[in-house]
Amino acid sequence: MTEPYVKVNKDPSGLATIIFFHPKHNSLPSDILSKLAQTITEAGEDDTVKLIVLKSGGDRTFCSGASFTELISINDLETGKKFFSGFANVINACRKCPKLIIGRVQGKAVGGGVGVASAVDFCLATKFASAKLSELNLGIGPFVVGPAVERKVGVSAMSQMTINADHFYTASWALEKGLYAEIYEDVDALDEGVQKLVDYLLSKNPESQSMLKKVFWEGTEHWDTLLADRAAMSGRLVLSDYTKEVLAGYA
Fold first, then answer.
1. Mean per-residue pLDDT for 48-76?
2. Domains of the chain from N-terminus onward
3. Distance in angstroms (rounded) separating the CA atoms of residues 104 and 190
4. What is the Cα–Cα distance from 13 to 49, expressed in whole angstroms?
5. Using CA atoms in the order 196, 42, 70, 73, what is the torsion angle rounded to 10 degrees?
6. CA distances from 22 to 28, 73, 138 (A)
7. Strand 101-105 with 122-126, pairing
8. CA torsion angle for 62, 133, 129, 26 (degrees, to 10)?
9. pLDDT band (50, 70, 90) for residue 59
10. Which of 3, 5, 137, 173 would bridge 169 by S-S if both were Cys, CB 3.0 to 4.6 A apart?
């Protein structure tokens, strides 16, 4: 398929698989971000769903982050804040979802894609799933996704990724820092690993998993406000002369 989409497949076992796709390396424009947040929220509210797997379409890039086409078109603060709030909404949807979310990362994660991988509860990846926080190259920063990334890998590793924004950190590095729980040789092995974990979790008490989810995310109750403030920061910076000049090169 070449058209962007967000879709959900529900299995009688209680598994909901949420898949997002965009032909431009699974980038995330506003409409996809909005639909993704809504789909995660609805799956969390669905009593027939016990567990969620979050994945992207295609065989290569997991998620390349913000849509450059949309970034280039931002010309006022409100539009900028609204766009970056889309990432905040996805992270908060994952955070508030009462079901455990398993991430399947088949390839590179860039910018907001690292934020998505950080927002799930347990993340499995291939050895090709290198990660990069590229925002500083655009004259902004990973302000919105930063709290989720920091929660997973710690301040030191997050600052390394943020400052060295040209560098792809290997999947092995991400495994060592805690972004990924396991890495696999290829997509087939990844899918086997995901299925094994899914089968295990579906055989366990969903109520206990929901309670554990609350425990895991304790201390993040202020993120609705925090991430909205961070979205405003990014929205201001994307209007700067520096960022406008950089983005013009991608037009």
1. 95
2. 5-187 (3.90.226.10)
3. 8
4. 8
5. -170
6. 7, 18, 21
7. parallel
8. 10
9. confident
10. 173
Rg (CA), the chain: 17
β-strand partners of 65: 27
Which has the closest alpha carbon to 70: 237, 240, 250, 245? 250
6-34 burial: b if 16+ Cβ within 10 Å, else e = beeeeeeebbbbbbbbbeebbbbbbebbb
What tens digit of pLDDT does each residue of 140-173 get? 999 999 999 999 999 999 999 999 999 999 999 9
